Structures are given as structure tokens and as C-alpha cells.
Amino acid sequence: MSTPAELRAALVDRLTGDGVLADPAWRAAAAAVPREAFVPEYFLTVPASAPTAYAPVLHGDPGRLEGIYRDQTLVTQLDGHLSPSDVQGAAVGAPSSSSTLPSLVLEMWQQLGAEAGHRVLEIGTGTGYSTALGAHRLGEHNVVSVEVDPGIGARAAEAIKAAGYSPTLVIGDGLAGYADGGPYDRLIATCSIRYLPLPWLHQVRPGGKILATFTGWSFAFGLALLTVTGPGCASGRFLPGHVNFMVARPHDRPPRQPITLLSGDARPSEIDPTILSDWTGKWVAQLAAPSAEIIGAGEQQILVDSATGSHARTAPNSDGGWTVTQRGPLRLWDQVEAAIQAWRQHGAPHQQGFGITIDGDGQRVWIGTEDGPTWNLPI
Ligand SMILES: C[S@@+](CC[C@H](N)C(=O)[O-])C[C@H]1O[C@@H](n2cnc3c(N)ncnc32)[C@H](O)[C@@H]1O
């Protein structure tokens, strides 16, 4: 049986071979930080379960260490309170804390352009694994990490201390940042946000960078790197890849109301509704209808806006094409259809073809350039 050190060295070799650890300083951090100290127990998804079920992996279980040193995300909490040791057999729930897969953590630290000596604010300490990597590479006195869940934060603090690091750890809502530790050169969020919290823009110095994943109530995602251009202002581009993170707790969608699909105004849909199952198609639809939740699948999409009771639903016609039925003050499908058409007219790029501008007029996501098709984020 391999030791943790051997498994860690093998993971570092694999990530280096994959090009994730081109920077020797980050390679040294990955080689030094023992992931097993941060994720002693975890959940793994039960293959082919629907709804997704999670099976606990506990101390003494076969394959526990090998799982820790696989490049995979390890869920450590469900529904805001369930730990692996609370569960017998498998459990169904929503992941609320995890240790993100090492390749993504390390890639994001590098995308952030964080250098030794930079002051960095991390939002979402989670297990503390990414915090410890940052502390190793950047100097522990330069790293501040905020976690909203006191129990998760306390466990992370123990693990970080035991691993020999002492960054500043804060329990609180990371959306408020942590002004006492600033100004920061870099801010990295490992939970996703609906819009950029204004405190971040005032705590990161002009010229500093913010790396964060934008999401919405339909759970489409785009990872963006922004440069702070002045107090309260920033601009940036979305990055390649398919990154998703659990939503920052205050930005999560409201509990779903029971859905009653009433009759409404029907017309032919000008777009194939299956585009909402596409990674970027869903992102565009979410930008176009930010207060709605997209549910349904394939040709039978349903959009529901709980605040106004507006909804839209699509269905295939027996002779080809689709019918959309809309009801309520918001014509959700009209919004989505226009956005998808505009996106296609601009070549239907992946999120990396999008950018974001934040200034006194709000937060805008656009395609191509600032004068391309633009949507306001719901701040
Ligand atoms: C994906 S996990 C973090 C992964 C972590 N960086 C690691 O590598 O172990 C996201 C974390 O963000 C935390 N979180 C959610 N909302 C937050 C908020 N508003 N402020 C701070 N932390 C938050 C969650 O409790 C969870 O622990």
C-alpha cells in the first residue's frame, strides 16, 4: 500500500505531466501540502444515482487515501450540516462544502497571477486545502481566508495549523470581504457569485485582480478574471474551461415554490429549446432571465420567476418545431430567445468570448467588446 507522501508525489507528477504545474513554486506547494490532513473523510457520488446520492468515505475505509490523491472534488458537507460521519449508507442532499479538485485549485491560483509577497483574500476556506497551498506559496502572513460556516471554518483552522501554516482565518460572510486585512493585491473566490460584491472592489487596490465564478439561479457558470480599475470599478474577461462552484450562501436562489403551470399565450419558438442544455447556451439564457430559474430538459424547458409568478414552457410539435407558452408580466422566453439569437449572430462563442464591466452604472456582461450584446447582472 502506498504512503500519503508517495500518493502525493504521484499526483504532483501527474499534474506536472498535464501541464497544470508548470510553475516550480506551485509544484513545491502541491508537493508540500498534505491533502489528507484537510479532507480526512468525504463523500463520493454514487454512480448513476438520480437524484445524486453521496456515499461517505470514512477513516479505515478501503481506498480512502487513494481517493484523496485522485484529482477529484471531495464533497465534505451536504445541506449545510451533514458531515460524512453523520451518514449511514448513502445520502441525498446538496453539496455545501468541498475540497475542490487539486488541478483546478492550482490552476486558479496561477490564473490569479498571485506572487510571493502579494496580499491575497480568499473567499470560501472550505477544508483549508487551497488556503494552505496559498500560504505555502505566497507567505502565510499575506493570506486571509473567509469562511461563512463556523464548523467548517473551525475544522479548516485546526488542519491549517497542524500543517504548520498560520494565515488569517475569518468566520463571516465573505461577500463583505475583510477590510481589516486589506488592501489586497488579489482576491480569489472558491464559491460562485451572482454579481461582484461591492466591498471586494474597495478592498482590492486599483490594478489588483479578482478571480471569481459568476453564476445565477439557473446554475450556469463563467469564471472571470477582473482587474480593479478604480474604487468600485473593474473590468475583465471570462476564461476558458468549464468551472463551477457552489453558490455563495447569500447569493443562492430562494426556495422553489410549488410550480403550477397555468395556461398562457402560445406561439412557435424561434429557437430549439435544447440549446438551454448547452454549457454556454444556458449561460446566455441565465443572463437574459436572471431572476428566473431554468428547469426542465431538452425540448421541454420550463422557466419560472418566483417573484412575479411569470413562467414559460416549451414543447415539441408533432410536425417539427416547438411551441412556447408564456404567462405573467415577464415574457421570459422572449428575453431568452433574443439573447440566444444575439449570441449566435456573434458566432456563439464559449464564455471566454464574453467580458464584464463594473462601474457606477452597474455590472454588465457582454459578448466580444463592450459595445457587443450586453446584459445587466442583477445587483
Ligand atoms: C468549494 S468550497 C471551498 C473549497 C476550498 N477552497 C478548498 O479547497 O477546500 C466553498 C466554500 O465556500 C463557503 N461559502 C459559501 N458561501 C460563503 C460566503 N458567503 N462567505 C464565505 N464562504 C462561503 C462554503 O461554506 C464552502 O466551504
Molecular structure report:
This protein has 379 residues and is of the alpha+beta class. The chain has a domain at 101-249: 3-Layer(aba) Sandwich (Rossmann fold), CATH 3.40.50. The protein contains 10 helices and 20 strands. It has helices at residues 4-17, 24-32, 35-38, 64-68, 102-111, 129-138, 150-162, 198-203, 279-288, 332-345, and strands spanning 42-45, 53-57, 74-78, 91-92, 95-99, 120-123, 143-147, 168-171, 184-189, 204-214, 222-230, 233-238, 265-268, 293-297, 300-305, 310-316, 322-327, 354-359, 362-367, 374-376. Strand 14 (293-297) and strand 15 form a beta hairpin. Helix 9 crosses helix 10 (332-345). The mean pLDDT is 96. Bound molecules: S-adenosylmethionine. The site of S-adenosylmethionine has 27 residues, from strand 5, helix 6 and strand 7.
Record the SSE blueprint.
Elements: H1 4-17, H2 24-32, H3 35-38, E1 42-45, E2 53-57, H4 64-68, E3 74-78, E4 91-92, E5 95-99, H5 102-111, E6 120-123, H6 129-138, E7 143-147, H7 150-162, E8 168-171, E9 184-189, H8 198-203, E10 204-214, E11 222-230, E12 233-238, E13 265-268, H9 279-288, E14 293-297, E15 300-305, E16 310-316, E17 322-327, H10 332-345, E18 354-359, E19 362-367, E20 374-376
